[in-house]
């Protein structure tokens, strides 16, 4: 029995360090306090802005802020939300722990409408609400001996790449570690629900991934990739459409597709 006590203690610690996703119900390992992840997110956000050019396009900036605010509102998360539109051809967006949102102008043509952008932002906000960055750092702490929550810092060169990657920041700011297939699927799930709750037509979610697929580019076989294939994502989003549409039909006001980008 004595030999089992350390095992029971470890199980108790792991269970105590788990968080439950408010949309999907999935539990995840969270060894790093959310406050600490938010502090790291703020550091990463400031670093990204220091190396980027904020867009001066008033119309696009207003649309991005409007959609981001509507998505943030339905999460009911008391973050210090902030959004910046970055002038870049990169087709990307990300949301850091604590609610700092970065959208690159390169993704706007793929979104096509406010609804397309609402799904992208819902997906990225989903990563933040589900604390996927903290989950990945926690997994790294388990694997890498000597990495502790107390020592986590972007100023530590040995940890900087790992942390920036775990936060989902673009590859130019660190070695990119893609979100796992489970995390990506969970963020898609949250994204289509959030966009519906925010009053945007959820039928645009699978259509956005159809446009992503139409851009081309070779994908590795899904079993070799950390991301679901485009076809898998489209199918899963179509499976979620009945639930999302029932939410959308009940909300007011409705924005439909919104304004064209």
What does this structure look like?
There is one protein chain. The protein has 261 residues and is mainly α. The chain has one domain (31-250). Helix content is 53%, strand content 8%. The strands form 2 sheets. A 3-stranded mixed sheet has the order 3-5-4. A hairpin with a 6-residue loop joins strand 1 and strand 2. Helix 3 (58-75) crosses helix 5 (114-129), helix 5 packs across helix 8 (181-197) and helix 9 (204-214) runs antiparallel to helix 10 (230-250). It is globular. It starts with a helix and ends in an 11-residue tail after the last helix. Mean pLDDT is 83; it is low at 1-15 and 171-177.
Largest sheet: 3 strands, mixed
Helix residue percentage: 40-55%
**Radius of gyration over C-alpha positions, nearest whole angstrom:** 19 Å
User: Which strand order spans the largest sheet, edge to edge or round the barrel?
Assistant: 3-5-4
Global geometry: globular
Number of domains: 1
Note the gap between the termini: 64 Å
Structural class designation: mainly alpha
Number of helices: 10
Q: Identify low-pLDDT runs.
A: 1-15, 171-177
Mean pLDDT: 83
How are the secondary structure elements laid out?
Elements: H1 5-16, E1 18-20, E2 27-29, H2 34-50, H3 58-75, E3 82-86, E4 93-96, E5 100-104, H4 108-111, H5 114-129, H6 132-143, H7 157-166, H8 181-197, H9 204-214, H10 230-250
Parallel strand pairs: 3-5
Antiparallel strand pairs: 1-2, 4-5
Helix pairs in contact: 3-5, 5-8, 5-9, 6-7, 8-10, 9-10
């Amino acid at each position: 029995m004595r030999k089992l006590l350390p095992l029971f203690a470890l199980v108790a610690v792991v269970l105590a360090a788990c968080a439950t996703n408010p949309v999907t119900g999935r539990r995840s390992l969270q060894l790093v306090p959310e406050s600490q992840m938010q502090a790291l997110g703020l550091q990463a956000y400031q670093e990204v802005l220091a190396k980027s050019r904020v867009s001066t396009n008033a119309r696009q900036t207003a649309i991005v802020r409007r959609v981001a605010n509507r998505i943030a509102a339905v999460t009911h998360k008391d973050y210090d939300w902030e959004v910046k539109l970055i002038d870049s051809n990169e087709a990307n967006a990300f949301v850091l722990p604590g609610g700092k949102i970065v959208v690159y102008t390169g993704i706007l043509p793929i979104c096509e409408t406010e609804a397309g952008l609402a799904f992208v932002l819902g997906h990225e906000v989903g990563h933040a609400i589900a604390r996927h960055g903290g989950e990945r750092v926690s997994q790294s702490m388990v694997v890498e001996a000597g990495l502790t929550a107390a020592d986590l810092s972007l100023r530590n060169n040995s940890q900087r790449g790992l942390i920036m990657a775990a936060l989902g920041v673009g590859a130019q700011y660190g070695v990119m570690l893609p979100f796992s297939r489970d995390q990506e699927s969970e963020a898609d799930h949250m994204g289509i629900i959030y966009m519906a709750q925010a009053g945007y037509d959820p039928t645009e979610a699978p259509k956005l991934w159809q446009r992503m697929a139409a851009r081309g580019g070779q994908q590795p076989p899904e079993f070799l990739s950390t991301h679901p294939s485009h076809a898998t994502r489209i199918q899963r989003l179509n499976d979620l459409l009945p639930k999302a549409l029932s939410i959308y039909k009940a909300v007011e006001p409705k924005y439909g597709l919104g304004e064209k980008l």
